[in-house]
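Writing this down once: the sequence line spells out the residues, with the fold written below as integer tokens. I am pasting one below:
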Amino acid sequence: MKLESSVPPPAHRLRNFGVNLWAEFSSLAVEHKATNIGQGFPDFVVPEFLQEEVRKAVAKPSANWYTRAQGHPRLVKELATEFSPLFNRNINHITELITALIKYKTIYTANT
């Protein structure tokens, strides 16, 4: 009996995007025997001096933390305040606005 993959294929609208940036970086890191510091890597014990520097950095309140994926609440609230008059309506900053630094993420978010 042949088992089918449990991973569904991507939506048709996403099939023309090709290899994403992160898959490309991971492949290059393996090819060049480089340390990939993205997507959950490195997967080995980090030297003690670096662990200590990370502890110091993350101990600062509100420093070095990811915000919500759709944008920092203060930023999207300001954007809603700025753009609501242009559209002659109140824009909900939590449910109707997103910000993104990476165009790949923006395109994916807009199409899903």
